[in-house]
Design a protein that fits this description.
Shape: globular
Structural class: alpha+beta
Strand content: 15-25%
Number of strands: 7
Number of helices: 5
Strand order of the largest sheet: 2-1-4-3
Distance between the termini: 23 Å
């Protein structure tokens, strides 16, 4: 459960680990302007408390359940599907051969997938193809949120000079998160 000011904001099915990154990335993609996230002393509580000083709970008054699937389910209106994020401007150019090689580089760096055959991943690469961050999760959206949350913590946002590579299909919600 992701909370802001002690109030539940979302519940997500996830692969445990990097939960603060997951919460930060989720909140960023929802336009909630987080500044930090912390786990409680009791890890069994399965909660993450996010510090988002400008959070307006009335703006988010849709009761939604976040799953590892589409990212549209649970939205209360079409207007809620869009994100409020500035367009990322970039002059980044990456060669076709490198782009074609990134999925294999991603797959080769997935230890949990190698063991289970059942997890998605998102990788953050520099323009030369060096893997800077990889996160695995049962959900494609969660893997992306974890990478975005890590990039936030490392002050890399916006990711205009980096390449994101995801396993599985690329849905419009993942493009929005990117």
């Amino acid at each position: 459960e992701i909370r802001i000011g002690g109030e539940p904001v979302a519940v997500t099915m996830r692969t445990p680990g990097h939960d603060e990154e997951l919460a930060l990335g989720f909140c960023l993609s929802e336009g909630l302007a987080p500044v930090a996230a912390a786990l409680p002393a009791d890890l069994g509580a399965n909660t993450v408390e996010v510090d988002a000083p400008g959070f307006d709970p009335q703006r988010l008054r849709r009761s939604f359940y976040t799953s590892s699937s589409c990212g549209v389910c649970g939205k209360g209106a079409l207007e809620a599907v869009g994100v409020e994020a500035p367009r990322v401007e970039s002059r980044l150019a990456v060669g076709a051969a490198l782009l074609a090689d990134l999925p294999e580089r991603l797959r080769a760096s997935q230890p949990a997938f190698a063991a289970t055959g059942g997890l998605h991943a998102t990788g953050l690469f520099d323009q030369r193809g060096k893997l800077l961050c990889l996160r695995e999760d049962v959900g494609r959206h969660n893997a992306m949120d974890k990478v975005v949350g890590r990039a936030f913590l490392e002050r890399r946002l916006p990711l205009a000079e980096y390449v994101l590579c995801v396993s599985g299909r690329l849905s419009f919600e993942l493009v929005q998160k990117a």
